[in-house]
């Protein structure tokens, strides 16, 4: 078990992210980096009747300079909350534990956080409570240079990078159509497996 690990912030993070977090004694979320496009920082994948679906939280980015992740603001001119909540409902309303957990996630998404980091953090804390994972999660106080370290997952857990993580198979609502689909958000596991979700990490 690693003593501490480093992770990026993530929106409804993938199962691999939570699995790594669950093995650590202490977790540091990077808040001093520049925002990275097309990463899990503001996107996730869920499984719908049409297959895997990408959900992205729109953000404001400066035109002439890079934006720190801690300063990245959510763009509410887009109707992303309604779209995401509708997609989650459509995808999981027939899952065994949807009614147990959806209202918690819905309340956080509807809360209109100004900053992406705050939205992600509140969702993460709630997900850890659902999983009954008691782990200390802190922010970094300064940017740490990227190194080849087995405890640094800030840039290795990424939707466009191959992963060595092998997900355990579990029940998915649309498995009869698509088979088992790995690489999805932790909400897929939580809605489908409920209290047993922790056993699949």
Produce a short descriptive summary:
By secondary structure, the chain is α/β, with parallel strands linked by helices. The protein has helices spanning about 15-25, 80-90, 100-110, 115-130, 175-180, 185-195, and strands spanning about 5, 25-30, 45-50, 50-55, 60, 75, 135-140. It is about 30% helix and about 15% strand.
Account of the protein in words:
- It contains 6 helices and 7 strands.
- With 201 residues, the chain is α/β, with parallel strands linked by helices.
- It has one domain (4-200).
- The protein has a 3-stranded parallel sheet with strand order 1-2-7, with helices on one face.
- Strand 3 (43-48) and strand 4 (51-56) form a beta hairpin.
- The protein is globular.
Please give the structural blueprint:
Elements: E1 4-7, H1 15-23, E2 26-29, E3 43-48, E4 51-56, E5 59-60, E6 73-74, H2 80-92, H3 98-110, H4 116-131, E7 136-139, H5 175-178, H6 186-193
Parallel strand pairs: 1-2, 2-7
Antiparallel strand pairs: 3-4, 5-6
Helix pairs in contact: 2-3, 3-4
Helix proportion: 25-40%
Structural class of the secondary structure composition?
Answer: alpha/beta
How many structural domains are formed by the residues? Answer: 1
Shape: globular
* Sheet having the most strands: 3 strands, parallel
Which parts are unreliable, with pLDDT below 50 for 5 consecutive residues or more? none
State the order of secondary-structure elements, H for helix, E for strand: EHEEEEEHHHEHH
What is the number of helices? 6
How many strand units?
7
Strand order across the biggest sheet?
1-2-7
Instruction: Give the C-alpha Rg.
Output: 16 Å
